[in-house]
Amino acid sequence: MIFLQEAKAILQLLIDADACPVIDLALFVSSNYEIKPILFCDTTHRIERENAITIVVPKGPDSVDFKLVNAVTKYDIVITQDYGLAAMCLAKGAFVIDQNGREMTAENIDQLLAFRFESAKFRRAGGRTKGPKKRTEKNNISFEMNFRQICERAILAKKRGDFSD
């Protein structure tokens, strides 16, 4: 059930919700701003929360990513750990942050994509890479602090009609 009025929301928060550990924290923070939260997931990870819209797509390679990128608009905020999706959202003028609070920007996305490519190439050649470290409270604190800053910057940018800090 959605309690947030469409007319009040000035921005959207689009969350790549499959395997996202900060959904509840992001919804809590975004409730302090005029931001409409939308969760994107596939049929195998149906995720619903009160006060958020859930968009469920059929299971398939990148089906969630394509649905999300088609919904994002300039100044929106996206939470994802997928560098490819982040690059597409940045190209549309969105702000992008991962679950650990790292902002993805035009300045760092090429390096992140190159690292992903090299890691995939290494694994295809038989190499093994370590998985992600266990999530800590420090990750949540970093995410919340940086997410709040991005919310404020996005709202200000939208009101000014630009994309600067």
TrEMBL record:
This is UPF0178 protein SAMN05880501_11136. Belongs to the UPF0178 family.
